[in-house]
Amino acid sequence: METAGIVDVIMNSLALTFIIQFDEMIFAILTTVPVKYRMGSLEEYALFDMQDDELLTDEEVLEDYLAHEFGYAGRRACLKTLVPKRLLAVVVLMVVFMYNYYRLNCDFLEDGSTVSKPMSFPQIVRFNPTFFFTNKYPMDAEPYWSMPSATSR
Q1: How far apart, in whole angstroms, are the C-alpha atoms of residue 24 and residue 31?
Q2: Alpha helices, DSSP H only, in 45-107?
Q3: Partners of 18 in the beta sheet?
């Protein structure tokens, strides 16, 4: 082997050792002596027992797994875990507000496109949330901007 290859192997093994022992270094630095003593005196905990499953055939194990893990309740629980509720709420609210914006502020043409309605200044500057949904906000009669027509060019 060439020397550069040996040096690379040694450096990579040192880097891997650092990565593997990083959590232990953090524990050693940040914990107190009583916590280290308690953690050192903990006994192992058996997570699950496989003796019953060892006596079953492969087909029975697969059927049991599918019934318990992927049943109706399992799929619903999986979806509850995977789909963030806040994200769904934000997306639903965004869709509602965007639909309401286009419904109140745009004209829909026959070809499916939308064109902005003429825009006017409000007569009052008070905020009322019901105005957004009802479009009853008092506006000036004279618009300050309107969509230019295609024939005016």
Answers
A1: 11
A2: 51-54, 58-69, 72-82, 85-105
A3: none
For 120, other C-beta atoms within 10 Å of its C-beta total 16
The closest alpha carbon to 116, from 151, 153, 150, 145, belongs to 145
Q: At 115, which helix (H) or strand (E)?
A: strand 114-116
Backbone phi and psi for residue 144, each to the nearest 5 degrees, phi listed first: -90, -15
Tell me the pLDDT tens digit for each residue of 16-74. 999 999 999 988 888 888 888 998 899 888 777 778 778 889 898 888 877 777 666 66
What pTM does this model have?
A: 0.46
83-98 CB burial, b ≥16 within 10 A, e <16? eeeeeeeeeeeeeeee
